[in-house]
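Thread: "does anyone have the structure for this chain?"

Original post by V.I.:
We have the sequence but no experimental structure in hand. Need at least a predicted one for the grant figures.
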Amino acid sequence: MEDFKSRKLLIVDDERDLRDMVDGFLRKEGFTRIYQASTCAGALELCQSVKPDLVILDIMLPDGDGFSLLASLRQLSDVPVLFLSARGEDADRLLGLGLGADEYMVKPFLPRELVLRLTAILRRVYAPPRQEQRPVFQVGDRVVDLESGTVRYNGSEYPITAKEHALLSKFYENRNRIVTNDALCQAAWSDDYYGYENTLMVHIRRIREKIEEAPSSPEHLLTVRGLGYKLLVKGD
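Reply from O.Q.:
Generated one for you, tokens below.
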């Protein structure tokens, strides 16, 4: 079984006391490979040298902001990111998730909740693959490969995130049928899915950007008003 507590964690926050506090209770939970950065520049340097397995990221930093830092990180890797910020507005949360963050938590926070969400991300991203082969299917001119976690078209490959993978898997299991919002949230966030409806919309938009020729006028991943969504897959 995967030992998630051996994974490398990077805490990026300009408040030393908060970094040390998070560092302390993570170590009490058994995590030992923890790194800290107080600036965007320092975080990028550590991401290149240490290659953390997960980043806990603040928004307000002295030499930039967490949103631009996340965009820079995405040019280097698909490392999962958990935003931990005092900015709790919906616009900030949706922006962070839209840029590819896996979670968004607002300060003040419960340390135990942070550990649970962090562990859930590590489990989703780094759990050993199951032995059965995951499906490969075509949507229009796009090939969705759930085994490799990519979408292929025009000779290029585009990675999908852990959340997108969970949602696409659920869609494929129920292809050509309506999947409710609750069922999709359950697939992506397990039992702790309440309140993620707006977040779901962000991930649906990101999936459409990868599988639709015209994401604003989808032909394959359709909205069923008041119920949920339907993925149309020909030949099934």
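V.I.: this helps a lot. Residues 136-231 form a domain with the Arc Repressor Mutant, subunit A fold (CATH 1.10.10.10).
O.Q.: and The chain has two domains: 4-126, 136-231.
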